[in-house]
Specification:
heterodimer, A: 263 residues, mainly alpha, Cytochrome Bc1 Complex, Chain D, domain 2, 3-stranded mixed β-sheet, two-stranded antiparallel ribbon, 7 strands, B: 97 residues, mainly beta, Immunoglobulin-like, 4-stranded antiparallel β-sheet, 3-stranded antiparallel β-sheet, 54% strand
């Protein structure tokens, strides 16, 4: 009889334990959302934004992120968008690179020397992304959708999202295409659907508590490609910008709440 | 030089809630960087020490601390400082809002 009861207890408690774990994760996320090291990255980013660098010895304070030279408030929420001066759709990191090479006169090689940092030494791009994105808190995501090149970027991003290839014949949709999939305890959002894309795009870029690193959207896409065993996409390439455009347009209207804090 | 700190101190139900962020690598003795961690944290309320804490390598990188101090009033000066095992130190001061 004793054995019977033990079996029953285990059968009943397993699903409950899984639910409890999810609840605990939610509780933890709420706890870290209020007061996360993201704010330290914003401070460092602000210092870098105002620091004179490159052969021209100027800061990025005159950088036009789409709303005019030096306008930061709400600029991130409107990216990616078409920029006439570059005749190209650009996301935040690509635009920052543009300002580093044009305003500061740095070579593309110098500006992209170290785009992804690590826990001991975060990259300039990570600090700057934190600072710029934070100035859009509370603003609705509204990536560009009117210019023909913005429409083309959206369509390319959508096609890439569903395009299966690489050594494992995977696409983004292999993991992010159906509901109720997960990797370990991490639920996978169905990113081509509005209700899933909205909370995700509203909280990237983000600080990862588990590895103490601040991660940009360019890194997120780069690392998804690595996990799918594709060749590594170039930083600020049309493909990565197109995917970000597709995801951000899908999430349109969501108030930005980032930079987020992730597990 | 030590990286930035950030602090917020607010009145809540007659108490003072302090939340402070610190930039620190907090490496353990097992890591290739070697032992490097904050060991003392002190909180002062209008110059009077109200919290003295000893922390270890078990705390994560870039620590976040929250304290609830009894009482307090708008404009109280809150100072938080840390000292690590290599003698580096940093502090931040703010007025209760």
């Amino acid at each position: 009889m004793k054995g019977f009861f033990t079996v029953v207890t285990i059968l009943v408690s397993l699903p409950v334990a899984a639910q409890d774990a999810k609840k605990e994760i939610l509780k933890y996320q709420q706890m870290i959302a209020d007061g996360s090291p993201v704010e330290l990255f914003e401070l460092e980013g602000e210092a870098l934004w105002k620091k004179a660098q490159g052969p021209h010895k100027v800061s990025l304070e005159k950088c036009d992120l789409g709303l005019g030279a030096g306008v930061l408030k709400g600029a991130y929420a409107r990216l990616p968008r078409y920029f006439k001066d570059a005749d190209r759709v650009m996301d935040l990191e690509t635009r920052l690179l543009h300002c580093m090479t044009t305003l500061q006169g740095r070579s593309p090689e110098d500006a992209t020397k170290r785009v992804f940092g690590n826990e001991n030494q975060p990259s300039e791009m990570e600090y700057l992304s934190a600072y710029v994105a934070a100035q859009s808190r509370g603003m609705k995501l509204a990536a560009g959708t009117s210019h023909p090149k913005e429409k083309a970027a959206y369509e390319l991003g959508k096609a890439l999202f569903f395009h299966r290839t690489g050594g494992w014949d995977m696409s983004c949709a292999s993991c992010h295409g159906e509901a109720d999939k997960r990797i370990r305890m991490q639920d996978l959002p169905v990113l081509h659907k509005r209700e899933f894309a909205r909370p995700i795009m509203a909280t990237w870029p983000a600080y990862r508590v588990s590895n103490s690193q601040f991660k940009t959207m360019q890194w997120r896409i780069n690392d998804c490609y690595r996990q799918m065993r594709y060749p590594e996409p170039n930083f600020a390439s049309d493909a990565t910008i197109a995917l970000t455009t597709f995801l951000t347009v899908t999430a349109a209207g969501e108030p930005y709440r980032g930079p987020g804090t992730k597990r | 030089m030590a990286g930035p700190m950030k602090m917020r101190a607010t009145l809540a139900g007659g108490n003072t809630d302090v939340r402070v962020l610190m930039t620190h690598p907090m490496t353990t003795a097992q890591m290739k960087e070697g032992l490097h961690h904050i060991q003392n944290v002190a909180v002062k309320q209008n110059g009077r020490t109200v919290v003295e804490a000893e922390i270890s390598q078990a705390v994560s990188r870039n620590p976040v601390f929250t304290f609830r101090l009894k009482g307090g009033a708008k404009g109280d000066r809150i100072e938080v400082s840390w000292l690590d095992n290599k003698g580096e130190t940093n502090k931040i001061e703010t007025a209760v809002a």
